[in-house]
Design a protein that fits this description.
heterodimer, A: 295 residues, two-stranded antiparallel sheet, 11 helices, 4 strands, B: 324 residues, ABC transporter involved in vitamin B12 uptake, BtuC, two-stranded antiparallel ribbon, 13 helices, 2 strands, globular
């Protein structure tokens, strides 16, 4: 058997793949957080709960309406995004004039309510969600066995991240968005409906979280707590990357996922905390984050 | 000038109302264990001190820590371990917990003060989560079981703390010392500088204050007092578990402070009393507690950001201002 650094290459690549999968979710979630923060100046603590909501909506669509994975991939982000827009319109929009910390606290409360409610109805044990038949099974790549669904997650998340990046950098809507991030008053003066833009942005951010959720459903178990532990890691990812750049959020997400996977190979005890350690080091060396602008 | 005198009067009325309430409150606390279940009261006191310590940082320095559970729960572990495994007396056990929390505060604070505002919150949350994972894996915390069956022991070697009333007055003493420390810090020249940092950090820097050092000092003090609360809680309940180091616990102390009133002396104490009472009632019902706490969070943030005590104080001083 081929060895690499004294570890069977299969185990090494396997953990690397797990790291890449986790990194895909970190990237998608920190991307959504960065978009929301960029325009709304709100740290969306409910992001993890919206990710969980996405997985659960997908699960419920299948269990009660018989709607499968592929339609859910469209429906779930729409539903989660819409619910996000309602929340922005009803509540978050009232908090733009006060200290941004209140936005964090409000979304924290929202996360508690969502998680508590799902826990009440579905308990803490996870529900399983099967990958669609087209993606079940796996492929032998010669040097390792790749479950098809996992391969799909990596590819799809890359497409989603690049697509979102293009949407922001290359389209007219993205241009409005970037302009409003720089100077909302001026953009409003040009006749752009900034409040609508804010609502839309929160909707897009939540939809991304929901999409990540439904994609995660077949990989991890669908459980009410799946988002709350993840969101804290994603916060660390965001601190490492700095929230100044969309691309930075994506790259950092994948990088830290891989770093976590590698740690699992060489020193498993530390795999839970490696991202936090990296965060501490980055804070010492470059407090603004790897891609952040100096505050 | 007019502004200055109004705030002067406001401050006086505030101080007078608070002193009156403090006197009544202490009398009530001394009498309380004769009417109410002591364990419940002690739990309330521990959380009230925890919230008061947290408020020192959020209310008076303007730093939102999302990781205070690390100090509360960390101190509980240290104290429980020292008392149970090493056979220390309760006062030294509590002292170790407090010092441990201070050391943790120094480390976490050192990293966290490198960023401001919302980043500060996220960094404290992440580092506290790291401490949580440490507690899950470290052998001395006994993992999921926690440290069980911690003896309360004899205070100074001769006061038996397994007698509920003795334990109650021990906790009450710790609570009063802790809250007095918060009051003393806030009303000292040091506290004034903290408030100036809260109001305008750049200005404080330009006046020549080493802002980073003051923030770190405030952070460590807050962590130390949170540790005192956690250490006492470990003795009251005779166990230390993972629950106290979770991020949910960090959120709970924020809720208590927010509900009672950020930046008021009494607010966190009132908030802690309400939240603990509420949890006590809900513990027996089927209804999920987190849904209620989450809902209170949202309502507080949307409708009364000053908190209960803050609103009352604001109304009182407004009323007096009209009468004049």
């Amino acid at each position: 058997m081929t060895m690499i650094f004294g570890i069977p290459i299969q185990a090494f690549l396997g953990q690397l793949l797990v790291g890449l999968i986790n990194g895909s979710f970190y990237a998608m979630l920190s991307l959504g957080l960065a978009i929301i923060f960029g325009l709304l100046r709100v740290i969306n603590f409910a992001h993890g709960a919206q990710y969980m909501l996405g997985a659960f909506v997908g699960y419920l669509l299948l269990a009660h309406l018989g709607i499968g994975y592929w339609p859910a991939l469209i429906l779930v982000p729409l539903l989660v995004g819409l619910s996000g827009m309602v929340i922005e319109k009803v509540a978050l929009s009232r908090l733009y004039n006060v200290d941004p910390l209140y936005g964090l606290l409000f979304t924290f409360g929202l996360a508690l309510v969502l998680e508590g409610a799902f826990r009440y109805f579905y308990g803490v044990s996870g529900q399983s969600y099967m990958p669609p038949p087209q993606l079940s099974g796996g492929t032998n790549l010669g040097f390792m066995f790749l479950p098809n669904y996992r391969g799909w997650v990596v590819v799809a998340s890359l497409i989603i991240c690049i697509g979102t990046w293009l949407l922001i950098e290359k389209t007219k809507l993205g241009a409005y968005l970037r302009a409003a991030t720089e100077n909302p008053t001026l953009v409003q003066a040009f006749g752009v409906n900034v409040p609508l833009l804010l609502t839309l942005t929160y909707g897009i951010g939540s939809a991304l979280a929901g999409l990540a959720g439904i994609m995660a459903a077949p990989v991890y178990q669908v459980s009410p707590l799946m988002g709350s532990n993840l969101i804290i890691v994603v916060f660390a990812v965001v601190v490492v990357g700095g929230m100044g750049s969309i691309l930075g959020a994506i790259v950092t997400g994948y990088m830290l996922g891989l770093a976590e996977g590698l740690t699992k190979v060489f020193y498993p005890e530390a795999s839970n905390i490696v991202i936090f350690v990296i965060m501490a080091i980055v804070l010492l060396v470059r407090p603004a984050g790897l891609f952040g602008k100096d505050a | 000038m007019a502004d200055l005198t109004t705030t002067g009067i406001e401050r006086q009325t505030r101080a007078r109302t608070e002193w009156l309430l403090v006197g009544l409150g202490v009398a009530a606390l001394v009498a309380a264990p004769f009417f109410l279940y002591p364990i419940f009261l002690m739990k309330m006191l521990c959380f009230a001190l925890f919230a008061a310590a947290f408020n020192l940082l959020l209310g008076y320095t303007g730093l939102l820590s999302f990781g205070h559970a690390a100090f509360f729960g960390g101190a509980a572990y240290f104290t429980a371990h020292a008392v149970k495994e090493w056979g220390w007396t309760p006062e030294f056990g509590v002292l170790l917990g407090v010092l441990g929390a201070a050391a943790l505060g120094l480390v976490i604070g050192f990293f966290a003060i490198r960023r401001q505002g919302i980043y500060f919150a996220m960094i404290t949350l992440a580092l506290a989560q790291m401490f949580y994972f440490f507690c899950v894996q470290a052998p001395f915390t006994k993992g999921e079981d926690g440290i069980q069956g911690v003896p309360r022991g004899h205070l100074f070697g001769f006061i038996d703390l397994s007698v509920p009333l003795n334990m109650y007055f021990f906790v009450l003493g710790g609570f009063l010392i802790g809250v007095f420390a918060v009051w003393r810090i806030v009303h000292s020249p040091f506290g004034m500088i903290l408030k100036s940092i809260r109001e305008n950090e750049n200005r404080a820097t330009s006046l020549g204050y080493s802002v980073a050092r003051y923030k770190l000092a405030a952070f460590v003090m807050s962590a130390t007092l949170a540790g005192l609360a956690g250490a006492m809680k470990a003795l009251v309940f005779q166990f230390a578990t993972l629950t106290d180091v979770t991020w949910q616990m960090s959120g709970e102390v924020i809720l208590m402070t927010l509900l009672g009133g950020i930046g008021t002396m009494l607010g966190p104490i009132v908030g802690a009393g309400l939240v603990v009472t509420l949890q006590n009632y809900l513990a027996t019902s089927e209804f999920p507690v987190t849904v209620i706490t989450g809902a209170i969070f949202m309502i507080c943030v949307l409708l009364f950001r000053r908190g209960i005590v803050g609103e009352i104080l604001a109304r009182l001083s407004r009323g007096e201002g009209d009468a004049r």
